[in-house]
Write a structure and sequence with these properties.
This protein is about 70% helix and about 0% strand. It contains eight helices and no strands. Helix 2 packs across helix 3 and helix 7 crosses helix 8. It is elongated and about 65 Å long.
């Protein structure tokens, strides 16, 4: 990833940086599709939703200034998605969801959908954090962490695989988790 913090990515988008836009699109498209599915949009409507949200964000990108004191970016972005999804549902010709309906259309979504959004957002932030961590951490430390924490191997197994002492495995885990916490603090809003 070229832009590892939300601020730098938003700055790149604001400048019209093509790489920044590509990264923004790739990063947020899955969340838009998820939310469209929660709003019970069909596949064509979900793809239209992606385009409408991205166009809306593009049109405001030159003047958009993210200010943490005004709220979280994820909530702002979710509102854009929900508003555009409602626009799509209002334009439906088949009457599948009436504007007055509470069929996960215009109204509040069930708690499970909100939980799914939060889970997906956390996964996005964690993936970004790991990308940044790769730039800051030694390969052996990362590999040790991956084997020990993510693949659930014992410290002794990891030590044998990497030709290090078992105590180093625990140190790597602590070091990586501290770094991840710091990175996530900078990414998550």
């Amino acid at each position: 990833m070229a832009f590892t913090t939300r601020g730098s990515l938003l700055s790149a988008v604001r400048r019209g940086d093509e790489v920044g836009w590509d990264e923004f699109y790739a990063m947020y498209k899955p969340l838009i599709l998820l939310r469209g599915g929660d709003r019970r949009l069909n596949q064509t409507e979900k793809e239209e939703l992606v385009q409408l949200v991205m166009l809306s964000f593009f049109n405001t990108s030159q003047t958009f200034r993210y200010d943490k004191s005004q709220g979280r970016f994820r909530d702002y972005f979710r509102r854009i998605i929900d508003n555009k999804a409602c626009d799509i549902m209002q334009q439906r010709q088949d009457g599948a969801v009436s504007i007055e309906s509470d069929d996960f259309g215009v109204g509040e979504l069930p708690a499970e959908a909100e939980d799914r959004w939060e889970d997906e957002w956390r996964e996005l932030v964690l993936a970004q954090a790991f990308e940044e961590l790769k730039l800051k951490c030694e390969a052996t430390t990362l590999q040790s962490y991956d084997y020990f924490v993510r693949q659930n191997l014992s410290a002794k197994e990891v030590a044998n695989l990497l030709d290090i002492k078992p105590n180093a495995v625990y140190q790597h885990k602590t070091r990586v988790e501290e770094m991840l916490r710091e990175i996530i603090k900078g990414l998550d809003d």
